[in-house]
Amino acid sequence: MSRKASGLGRGLEALLPKGGGGVVRLPLSALKPNPHQPRRRFSEESLKELADSIREKGLLQPLLVRPKGEGYEVVAGERRYRAALLAGLAEVPALVRDLTDQEALEIALVENLQREDLSPVEEARGYQVLLGMGLTQEEVARRVGKARPTVANALRLLQLPEEVLEALEEGRISAGHARALLMLPEEKRLWGLREILEKGLSVRQAEALKERLKEKAPKEPSPLSLELSRHLGLPVRVVGGKRGRVVIHYRSLEELEALLERLGYQA
Questions:
Q1: Pfam families given for it (predicted)?
Q2: Which residues of 62-101 are buried (b: 16+ CB within 10 A; e: fewer)?
Q3: Residue 160 gets which letter from DSSP?
Q4: Domains of the chain, with CATH numbers?
Q5: 195-207 pLDDT, tens per residue?
Q6: Cα 154 to Cα 96: distance, rounded to the nearest angstrom
Q7: 176 pLDDT exceeds 80?
Q8: Band of pLDDT at residue 266, cut at 50, 70 and 90
Q9: Is 46 helix (H, G, I), strand (E, B) or coil?
Q10: Distance (Å, rounded) from C-alpha 246 to C-alpha 238?
Q11: Alpha carbon separation from 206 to 91, 174, 255 (Å, rounded)
């Protein structure tokens, strides 16, 4: 077993409370989705395929639910719950556990991470909710079986503009593209997104956008350029070192004539 899978497996097992009853059958009408479910996007085609399978063979794996109000809230198995609704089931097998909001979110996160069901944005937002519940990044990482730098890097994605996050969730750019955009100044990140989408840039090409910006950025005038500008009353640019050129900018013939007179030129 890989290190990743092993860590996540231990995390989920540790989070699931021991004891409690076994599998029971609950009316599907008594269940409702978890508003804090980290996974937001479900493929309609995939749900339809699962619903067809459920109609033929039934729901083989129970849902994990917790008592909520007059019914139950789905903690783990949201996709199976949605497919069961499509399949028109009257009741479903379920494990009922008393869980806090934090425990419910941790279990939902780990279940989705094990299946690699979450998009990078969904994963980051799940971590953000856990942080909002008072956990540190180190504690979040330990709970979900991830390294702390992995959690920190995921959270950094949320610094990107919403338009970039939407493109990432929709698969129009990759996580590598998103990380490349984080290297750009905030005011240039939407520009970077347009460059990637319009020109079909690879991740490596997206990473080079930072250098392109540096090349385009106007250079600060040298002290000598500033001194000559003040002396002549016109913009001056000194290019080069021991050898080079002095460029004097004027905006009218009157300014040129005044400059020539100042330099002692007689027509």
A1: HTH_ParB, ParB_C, ParB_N
A2: bbbbbebeeebbbbbbbbbbbbbbebebeebbbbbbebee
A3: S
A4: 3-117 (3.90.1530.30), 160-216 (1.10.10.2830), 223-262 (no CATH)
A5: 999 999 999 999 9
A6: 31
A7: yes
A8: low
A9: helix
A10: 5
A11: 50, 11, 45
Is the pLDDT confidence value at 172 over 80? Answer: yes
Active-site amino acid positions = 78
CA distance 177 to 121: 13
Distance CA 43, CA 83 (A): 11
52: Cα separation from own chain's centroid: 33
pLDDT of residue 42: 74
- DSSP annotation of 82 reads H
Q: 202: burial class by Cβ within 10 Å (0-12, 13-18, 19+)?
A: middle
**221/227 Cα distance (integer angstroms):** 10
pLDDT at 114 over 70: no
Give ∠ CA 136-158-74 in degrees, rounded to 5.
70
